[in-house]
Amino acid sequence: MSDGDDDRTLLARHVAGDHAAFAELITRHQDRLWRVALRTVGNPDDAADALQEALVSAYRNAGSFRGEAAVTTWLHRIVVNAALDIGRRRDRHGASSLSDQQEDPVDVGSSSAYDEHDTARAVVAGLRRLPHEQAAAVVLVDVEGFSVKDAAEILGVPEGTVKSRCARARARLAAVLSDLAPDKRSPAAAAGGNVKDPVPVQRQDAPTTRDDLAPPDDGDHAR
Amino acid sequence: MNDVPDTGHYDLDALAELDEGLAPDDADRRIRRHLDGCPDCADRLARVRTTRALLTTLPDDKIPDAVAARIHEAVEQSGEAGPALTGRTLVPAAAGRRWWRSPAFAGAAAAAVVALLVAGLVVGNIDSRHHATSNGTSAGSSNGSAAGGVDPDIIRSAAIKEWQTGTNYTPASIPRLVPHLVASNPSGSAALQPTPSPATAIASPTAPLGTVQFTFDTMRQSRVAVAKCGHILADDQTTVPLAVDFARFQGVEAVVVVLPSPGQPGFVDAFVLRTPCSAGALFQLYRVARGG
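Structure tokens for the assembled complex are given below, as produced in the milestone run.
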């Protein structure tokens, strides 16, 4: 995983006091970091918290970066650790114990067609059912294309552990996704059940009067 | 991953480990021999490989704009170099009579000053921009007020607290910061620095509010324009903003216009304008407690 000299230069500029440099570094990698955080913890709110916590930490501790790994690896390590911490905290408090959920069939929508959109939804829903450590491993390796070596460095575990987690994750996902096949879809899906969509829905502009506004509101409105 | 299980088949875990190369050599050979003669296990292995392939095809989702803005803000705030959301915005100071310090004042039209003085009600922090604007407004007004034909908004607008903090607001920071716009008094770099403006800052002072629009520049130049913008946003002719801040919202230039919440004295309504103020303006509306 190479990030070239630019990332290192940006980080060095930041450490030297150029605060805009870190913003540029974040901007460069934020989409990928977001995806890793989101698919590790399973929901956008926790992912945003993890990403914020991680990047603030990276900002403050950039001076400790020794340059032994690529900057992207370093950033991913901090983000994944934050995501795993948040995921574990959630599990301990029973708010969203994904790994303990029963493997009920993944409902992929009401359409009779089995298309790519349904597939992506089902895969994402399947990832949410994995233990966070397995999700992080398989997301890094299979989804984001990190080598096992880099993933091991990010996760701070031996390469064999990464392979093992990936294998278990794929096995578990395969079991869940088997319901995707059109002839094996759940009765709910066949009957037009709701889609379990992990993607947050963007609010649409809608006419609203101030009289019915409950504080606070964040919707766009146009008069 | 040893002998064939009692079921006579290998499960997904065993096959996934085989596929990952985790099986010891002897087990690897044994399972592969079994696969040659077992369509069920071969099908399960195919499912594992399909799953792996599906994972590689997930879309490259982008970080939501709101999340990105929130994170950049948090990082910025964590720095020692000066967060964007504190200091300039929130430091209260004694109210100043900006008008006499304003470079624009010296250039204001004498007639405009006289017009306001005649009105007898213009005191305190009305600056030269409003003198200039009042000239244009009263000259063109057909529905003048009791104050000798002077647009009543010239009087009403005197109380608007005008800020130019440059703050990059976010949905999360609005409830925390907006109350300070109302409770504190702008000063120093946080105060709006007026620029000389022509008497026609408000192009059509007598036109129906449904047909006019006020650009951000116009509102910077004219407190009366801010007042009229308040009328548009409140959809009435008397509500005047409590405060206005020329700032940013999630990285984009924006004007925050704070109005009293109708029927809710404990709250204020913060309109975040990202387009010129008009009847069709696009804004975000936040109702926040006055106390933050």
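Chain B touches chain A through 61 residues (CB under 8 Å). The CA atoms of residues 118 and 209 of chain B lie 27 Å apart. Further analysis is deferred to the final report.
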